[in-house]
Fold:
Amino acid sequence: MKSLASYYFLLYLAVSVVMPYTSLFFSEKGFSNTVVGLILSLWALISVVSQPIMGMLNDRLSNPRQILLVSAIAAPLIGIGFLYFDSLGAIIVISVFFVWFQSSMGPLSDSIAVDIGNREGFSFGSVRLWGALSYAIGAFVTGFLYERYGYEHIFWYYLGVNAVLTLFIFLLPKAKPVFKKATIIEQISEVSRNKPFLIFVGISMLAFMSVSINFSFLPIYFKELGFDKSLLGSAFAVAAIIEVPMFWVSARLSRRIGHYQVLCIAAAIYALKYLMLFAFADVYLTLVLQLLDGIAFAFVAGTAVEVVESYSSERTRATLQTVFAAITWGLGGIVGNAAGGVMVDHLGVQSLYLILGIFCATASILYAVTRKFAQGYKVET
Structure:
């Protein structure tokens, strides 16, 4: 558990120094909001392809540490290329390779953590909360750092943290996951027959797509409404710091009222936050509303991973986690970020949050409606 906690701390510290600021990084390079949205949509498209392939490769090789090690080294080295090229064509080429490795690390890590947690008797949330803590620290510090010194150095910071993360990958448990190997065709077939999983993915896409869009466009929200951008890091930190105790609460609440009920509550909280951002334009209210964001994310992130695990067999653990991430964050991000950029340019950033509120309210209702159907499902291993 200590090894996993340390690993998650560094994993999300690396995420915190680069991912919240990518929209501003490309905006500072002179790209319009529409083009920024399309670049981020491309990132999501790449993750849709890469995550399931990396997941299936992981399940075939039976050596998750090996894939994580390659990804932790390759992603930051490739990301440095963004600093030296300004043309859209070069950005697209670099994006393909950078996102291929970077986007797979989260779901692969979650698959390992859930599997080890089930064997050793601790919850995923008790490990994941350390990632929330490091994200809060990193986002808070870098918000002020980048506003003072510029956003052009973010990938150097990412490289530095990943260098340390690489060392900690060797400390992860050496025991290989226990499952029966399956061919790629068998893995695809098993996923396609898993109807409760596919329904869960479809509902979650509404909520996760909204979260992904908010993550990408909150910096633009600050910029368009004239907020002090030095507070942007504080906004992400406020959300992340409340996640730390909320991951603990989420694990216990799930055991008491059920996973789907927790997800229903989380989607409703997201809907409230987005509708408030639509109705009011105040930087300090926005910072307060980030508390709701942190609560909802802890409920969603900790619970969804365990729901996906409950639908997986011994030979498709990583596959289902990466497929879930690819569709909800990836495909949802493709549609959402592309449409979000156009909407911001033509309707204004506040109108975007009205749509996000409607999406999350719908997801909350659907989680409640499908709960009984999902609870009766038993996976065959």
About this structure: The chain has 15 helices and no strands. The two ends are 26 Å apart (CA to CA). The mean pLDDT is 81. The chain has one domain: 2-169+185-375.
